[in-house]
Amino acid sequence: MSAAVPPRPTAPVHRVIQSGPLALFAAPMAAGALWVGAADWRLGVLAVIGGFLGLVLYHGSFGFTAAYRRAFMARDMGAVRAHVVMLALAMVLFAPLLAEGRALGVGINGALAPADGRVVAGAFLFGLGMQIAGGCASGTMFALGGGSLRMVLTLAAFCAGGFWATFDLAFWNTLPGLGTVAFNRELGWGGALALSLGVLAVLWWALGRLARGAQAPLGGGTAARGAAALRGPWPLLWAAAALALLNFATLAVAGHPWSITWGLTLWAAKAAQALGWAPETSAFWADGFPARALALPLWRDTTSVMNAAIILGAGLAASLAGRLRASFTAAPGALLASLVGGLLLGYGARLAYGCNIGALFSGIASQSLHGWVWLIAALAGTWTGIHLRPLFGLAKDR
Question: Are 176 and 116 in contact (CB under 8 A)?
């Protein structure tokens, strides 16, 4: 639901399936899943999950950028309320698995991070960037898969911004904070779940009270049924439920929830390394997990595999819907917005321990306080970004 995504259809439109593009996206997705799965079955399964994520995001036009913008500018709370449903379902699914601590032979870890100044600064920059660029992390990838070629620039800038931030973390780590606070550790998983669901229930009620005018429909009988559902569009509630289930599946298979930002930062580091950069000159990349990830091929990184599959899955969905159209916005203001917004997205996400997926969605579902802090700071950045859009020739309300 970003500015780069085609408007949400209000009813199924029976276009002809684009068989050529369908094969173009389906073949590498299937081959890639089989290839990485031959080395590690978990990677193969995660590639399939990533493909379904791309399909769901596209068919549901499910994003954060335009949802927040409409909430501020038109008091249309429909899409934001779908986010509340998604978070509630994910919490219910995550809670017992996180309490167990293991699944499918591996340890399970939630998306936990400190609730500190880094999160506040990073999430604000991310909210600012997604309104300027016209897409969030997941929105950028599924818009690209759906044919928005301008998102190539946004994605490249996102990667560069995340890589840039790794050199500045020594400063940002000096900001004060509360440390890592996990409600399920403090209250037990049952108490934390009850508290969090209560907060979401109040939020659902408050959004309903704030709503004015026409609202994005959450469900309804206009969506295709059965096999035709593969062609879309999907009601927001379908997409919300599917994303919660797919994030749960990611947690069970990978041992951690769905994330995006790390993969994009790693892509930029790999590109820099190919151009002659020496990772041992950086404190962030010289040791630990970053160093190990940099030493391995990209196809061994779970987040990178899922990111690539999301783009392919969105392209497959667009082909099934008969809506794949390569488009490129050449207006100088829009191109500058993609570049500046993408850099802010990547830099902010790296500071904030994740984006709208890894920090907000997965963080809140994991009962981490930093996810809620991220949301508040990102909303402030969103409001600021909306009012900066005219500087790039972009309308505030679309």
Answer: yes
Q: Which structure tokens are listed for 123? A: 């999430």
CA distance 364 to 372: 6
3-state secondary structure at position 180 = strand
Kindly give, in sequence order, each residue whose CB lies less than 8 Å from that of residue 228, ignoring residues fewer than 6 positions away.
Answer: 12
| Of 4, 1, 66, 2, the residue nearest 328 (C-alpha) | 4
114-116 and 102-103 as β-strands: parallel, antiparallel, unpaired? unpaired
Q: Find how far residue 103's CA is from the centre of its chain.
A: 24
Tokens of 110: 């939630």
- Distance CA(262)–CA(354), nearest Å, equals 8
Kindly report the average pLDDT of the chain as a whole number.
90
The pair phi, psi for residue 17, each rounded to 5°, is: -60, 135
Strand partners, 180: 114
Characterize 24-46 residue by residue with b for buried, 16 or more Cβ atoms within 10 angstroms of its Cβ, and e for exposed.
bbbeebeebbeebbeeeebbbbb
User: Other C-beta atoms within 10 Å of 344: how many?
Assistant: 26
Q: Read off the pLDDT of residues 107-117 as tens digits, 9 standing for 90 and up.
A: 999 999 999 99
Q: Cβ of 194: how many Cβ atoms within 10 Å?
A: 13
- Residue 71 CA to residue 114 CA, distance in Å, equals 28
β-strand partners of 61: none
Q: pLDDT tens digit string along 232-258? A: 789 999 999 999 999 999 999 999 999
Q: How far apart are CA 169 and CA 81, in angstroms?
A: 34
Q: Which of 255, 240, 269 is nearest to 91 (CA)?
A: 240
* Secondary structure letter of residue 390 according to DSSP: G
Lowest mean pLDDT among 231-235, 271-275, 359-363, 389-393: 231-235
The rounded distance, in Å, linking the Cα atoms of 70 and 292 is: 42
**Picking from 38-52, 129-143, 175-189, 324-338, which range would have the lowest pLDDT averaged per residue?**
324-338
Indicate if the pLDDT at residue 180 is higher than 80.
yes
Q: Where are the domains of the chain?
A: 19-392
Q: How far is Cα 231 from Cα 317, in angstroms, rounded to an integer?
A: 7
- Indicate the pLDDT class of residue 163, thresholds 50, 70 and 90: very high
Instruction: Provide mean pLDDT across the span 64-84.
Output: 93
